[in-house]
């Protein structure tokens, strides 16, 4: 039986549980093993401590043999190639961004100066471009804690990934789910990355059965934008890709944190990694580096 390393949050164990169940369905029984990270014990916003503390702890457990398989939110992984890990991307959940607001309000219906919670620069910059009047507040904690700020009246609304809400059983909570052409998600949002050790032939054969061609192509194109821009997962960079047959359509943007400027590029291609590089280079030619700085 394979052991699957996961963080202990409700969302993480739910996501990893889906991977466990999928492995079982293809004849490879597995069980979850909780890996506690320093990030789980911190009260600081993720943007301050960095998502790397979560992914590195899971990878450490994988490479030391504590677990056989690790499950990550793909958007949290570094873009640098890790030769010790063999990775696959299963079928992807909905990548869109979602608003949870009091009284069933949409973003356009929020009152002037409404308090909206998010700590992600990518979300802050797009919110300010659409509604410069909003009072953006930092947000920390698991999904349940974040939603509680709206429930108890501390915030008027929050922005979360729709995929996490659906996976956590809260798919009915959003008051608005944004068109990605209007509010772009993070690269690889909604996708999971399932890793095993490169030299573990049995685990490689097992997780290879979970790989999804469309999810792999789309997330590869989106993350290629990040890699070419040399941007971290908390940079004000967004991307969304759709695979149709052999072709991938990619749209990516880099935003000024105050919402004053947005650079957006679109292209199509059959090589996802090359497509991402091409779109990122077009953004750099238009001054993306200065916006990210």
UniProtKB/TrEMBL annotation:
Alphabetized InterPro entries for the sequence: HemC, Porphobilin_deaminase_cofac_BS, Porphobilin_deaminase_N, Porphobilinogen_deaminase_C, Porphobilinogen_deaminase_C_sf
* Quaternary assembly: Monomer.
Function recorded in the entry: Tetrapolymerization of the monopyrrole PBG into the hydroxymethylbilane pre-uroporphyrinogen in several discrete steps.
Q: How is the cofactor bound?
A: Binds 1 dipyrromethane group covalently.
Q: Where in this chain does the record put each Porphobilinogen deaminase N-terminal domain?
A: 3-203
The keyword Transferase belongs to this UniProt entry's keyword annotation: yes
The question of whether Ubl conjugation is a record keyword is answered with no
What does the further note read?
A: The porphobilinogen subunits are added to the dipyrromethane group.
> Family assignment?
Belongs to the HMBS family.
- Example GO molecular function term? hydroxymethylbilane synthase activity
Give, as one word, the top-level EC class: transferase
Reactions performed catalytically: 4 porphobilinogen + H2O = hydroxymethylbilane + 4 NH4(+)
Report the record's Gene Ontology biological process terms. protoporphyrinogen IX biosynthetic process
Q: Which residues carry this modification: S-(dipyrrolylmethanemethyl)cysteine?
A: 233
| Protein name (record) | Porphobilinogen deaminase
Any coiled-coil regions, as ranges = none
Q: What SUPFAM superfamilies has UniProt attached to this entry?
A: Periplasmic binding protein-like II, Porphobilinogen deaminase (hydroxymethylbilane synthase), C-terminal domain
């Amino acid at each position: 039986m394979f052991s699957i390393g996961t963080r202990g949050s409700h969302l993480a164990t739910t996501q990893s549980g889906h991977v466990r169940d999928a492995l079982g369905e293809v004849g490879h029984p597995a069980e979850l093993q909780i890996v506690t990270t320093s990030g789980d014990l911190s009260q600081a916003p993720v943007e301050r401590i960095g998502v790397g503390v979560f992914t590195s702890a899971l990878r450490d457990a994988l490479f030391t043999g504590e677990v056989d398989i690790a499950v990550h939110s793909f958007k949290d992984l570094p873009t640098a190639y890790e030769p010790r890990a063999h990775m696959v991307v299963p079928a992807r959940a909905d990548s869109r961004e979602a608003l949870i607001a009091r009284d069933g309000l949409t973003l356009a219906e929020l009152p002037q100066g409404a308090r909206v919670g998010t700590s992600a620069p990518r979300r802050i910059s797009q919110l300010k471009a659409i509604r410069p009047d909003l009072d953006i507040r930092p947000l920390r904690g698991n999904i349940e804690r974040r939603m509680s700020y709206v429930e108890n009246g501390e915030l008027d609304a929050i922005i979360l990934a729709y995929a996490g809400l659906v996976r956590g059983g809260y798919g009915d909570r959003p008051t608005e789910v944004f068109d990605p052409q209007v509010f772009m998600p993070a690269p690889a949002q909604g996708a999971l990355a399932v890793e095993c050790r490169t030299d573990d032939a049995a685990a490689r054969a097992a997780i290879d059965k979970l790989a999804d061609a469309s999810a792999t192509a789309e997330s590869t194109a989106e993350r290629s934008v990040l890699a070419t821009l040399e941007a971290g997962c908390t940079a004000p960079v967004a991307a969304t890709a759709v695979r149709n047959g052999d072709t991938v359509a990619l749209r990516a943007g880099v935003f000024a944190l105050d919402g004053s400027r947005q650079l957006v590029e679109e292209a199509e291609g059959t090589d996802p990694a090359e497509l991402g590089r091409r779109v990122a280079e077009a953004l750099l030619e238009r001054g993306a580096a200065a916006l990210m700085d």
